[in-house]
Specification:
- With 301 residues, the protein is α/β, with parallel strands linked by helices.
- Helix content is 46%, strand content 15%.
- The radius of gyration is 19 Å and the shape is globular.
């Protein structure tokens, strides 16, 4: 039976991807960094959980031993290209049938952001390896909204990006389902690069208005510097994200995240979550405990 390795298996894409594959009867090896409650939930669902670091070749080799396909994902930060080299080498040794590689929509060799440039370089590494690879060039996740949920609860919608910059956010679960579908049925996907976006394009100001509408409250768009934004998120010393977000601000001004792709819808065979779906699914994150939710009020009436 096919066994698939899912890296970052406790993340926004790894966790639902593992769940989708398990529901399809596929054996899943979930690679995580720590043995915690999230790892136990994966075990409870039927995954084989292994522990390791994508920057430790010994761990990567062990994780790929005995699997046929794999999902590669690496967080924003230092080490992406090194991790891709290790993963590609270990995948080649294990004669993998397919790698699905998480990349960025603005991936290109002359990217201003080192993180974005490293995604492009990692795509090249997997190509050189000879292991069939599908690159997913993904726009901003809808999960960005959860990063500022604590601010939204108190009436602030804050972003470090220009109000009129446009993009089509996609839910992590839809990215996960797209990748899981490719991994479960890889025929025709090796060597392909897909651009993944959500179903509706917004400016940042329009997105703030849509979140306001769904939550039934006034959330005017507020732009701050990247430094201030990271302070508000409680990660003021994350220089990798500082440099990346500053570069992405320019990418958006140049329209590199604009547009809508139907690739994810075509691959999974049904519509993607829209912003309203996402907010409703995660509504408790955006409201204070004593708030009366509009949906609950309508039901009561």
């Amino acid at each position: 039976m096919t066994r698939i390795l899912v890296t970052t298996a406790n993340g926004d894409t790894g966790r639902p991807m593992a769940e989708y594959l398990l529901e399809r009867g596929v054996q899943v090896r979930a690679m995580v960094r720590a043995d915690d409650a999230r790892a136990q939930r994966l075990r409870d669902k039927g995954a084989e959980v292994v522990f390791g670091d994508l920057l430790t070749f010994r761990d990567v080799r062990a994780a790929l031993d005995g699997v046929q396909r794999a999902y590669f994902n690496f967080p924003v930060g230092e080490g992406l290209v090194e991790a891709a080299v290790m993963f590609a080498q270990a995948a080649r040794e294990a004669t993998l049938e397919l790698i699905v590689n998480m990349s960025q929509i603005q991936s290109r060799p002359k990217a201003r952001s080192k993180a974005t440039q490293n995604h492009w370089l990692s795509e090249q590494v997997f190509d050189w390896s000879g292991v069939p690879t599908t690159n997913l060039r993904v726009t901003f996740f809808m999960e960005w909204l959860t990063y500022i949920a604590g601010l939204i609860r108190y009436g602030r919608y804050v972003m470090p990006f220009d109000a009129d910059s446009r993009f089509a956010p996609i839910a992590g679960r839809d990215i996960a389902l797209t990748a899981a579908t490719i991994l479960a049925n890889p025929e025709g996907h090796g060597g392909r690069t897909y651009t993944l976006t959500g179903p509706v394009e917004y400016s940042h100001q329009e997105l703030a208005a849509e979140v306001s509408r769904v939550l039934g409250r006034d959330l005017p768009f507020e732009q701050v510097t990247v430094t201030t934004f990271l302070d508000l998120l409680g990660i003021p010393d994350d220089t990798a994200k500082l440099r990346h977000f500053e570069a992405v601000t320019i990418d958006q001004r140049e329209g590199r995240l604009a547009g809508v792709s139907d690739a994810a819808t075509t691959i999974i065979g049904h519509r993607l979550r829209n912003v309203e779906d996402f907010i409703v699914e995660h509504r408790s994150l955006f409201e204070l405990e004593d708030e009366v939710r509009p949906s609950a009020a309508r039901t009561a009436g």
